Amino acid sequence: MIIQNAEKIKEILENDGVIAYVTDTVWGLGCLPSSEKAVKKIYEIKKREAQKPLILMSNETYNLLEYVKPIPKIGCRLIKKYFPGALTLVLEKTDKTPYYMTSNMETVGIRVPDNEIFKEICEIAPGHVLATTSANLSHQPSAKTYEQALENMQGLADMIIPDYGHICKGLESTVCGVFGDELKIFRQGAITVELTI
User: Fold this and answer.
1) Which domains does the chain have, with CATH numbers?
2) Which one, of 107, 113, 108, lies nearest residue 128 by Cα?
3) Separation CA 67–CA 94 (nearest Å)
4) What is the pLDDT of residues 88-138, one digit of tens each?
5) pLDDT tens string 32-71
6) CA angle (112 as vertex; 106, 116 as ends), nearest 5
7) Whole-angstrom distance, CA of residue 8 vs CA of residue 76
8) How far apart are CA 49 and CA 112, in angstroms?
9) Contacts by 141-146 with C-beta closer than 8 Å and gap 24+?
């Protein structure tokens, strides 16, 4: 394991804390999805509008499955092709995904980043899933380096975990909704989804 302070990270998360970390796209800010207090803290830190949901990220697709309803075939094909990577899939949520992190919507975004440090953080996190968003104030540019994450989140996040040289590419994920056999691109990001899959 590369990360130091694993016990400290676990303790922060278990006590309604918020952490900042590198992913494969941009820097993230996250907490345990089961902590309403921590989710509210993220909204306060970012000055984020209540109607903008958080997404769920993990080191393995398997860990995210109980948070979403059975994934349509086209969604499964996208997961096979693009996970781990810079694709966020918006799917129908289950009752395990709390409304306080989905802005009361019936859907939730899921993603598996391709970054070793993030994967280790998920291994440390109870349940291996984080409710997450980008580590910046709303309407400000996303943090692309450890230095920018420090600048944005020092004194706000409970811990900013170094990237240990596993830097991000600096372009946000593509956000794609899957509704039955229909796909809808909500945000064009680092990858171009082939809609003819």
Assistant:
1) 6-187 (3.90.870.10)
2) 113
3) 5
4) 999 999 999 999 999 999 999 999 999 999 999 999 999 999 999 999 999
5) 999 999 999 999 999 999 899 999 999 999 999 999 999 9
6) 150
7) 35
8) 25
9) 142/26, 142/27, 142/170, 142/172, 143/20, 143/26, 143/27, 144/26, 144/27, 144/168, 144/170, 145/27, 146/22, 146/27
**Residue 104, Cβ neighbours under 10 Å: how many?**
10
Q: What b/e sequence results for 169-184 when a residue is b if at least 16 CB atoms lie within 10 Å of its CB, and e otherwise?
A: eeebbbbbbbeeeebe
Query: Which candidate, 130, 109, 129, 136, places its Cα nearest to that of 48?
Result: 136
User: Phi and psi of 101, rounded to 5°?
Assistant: -105, -5
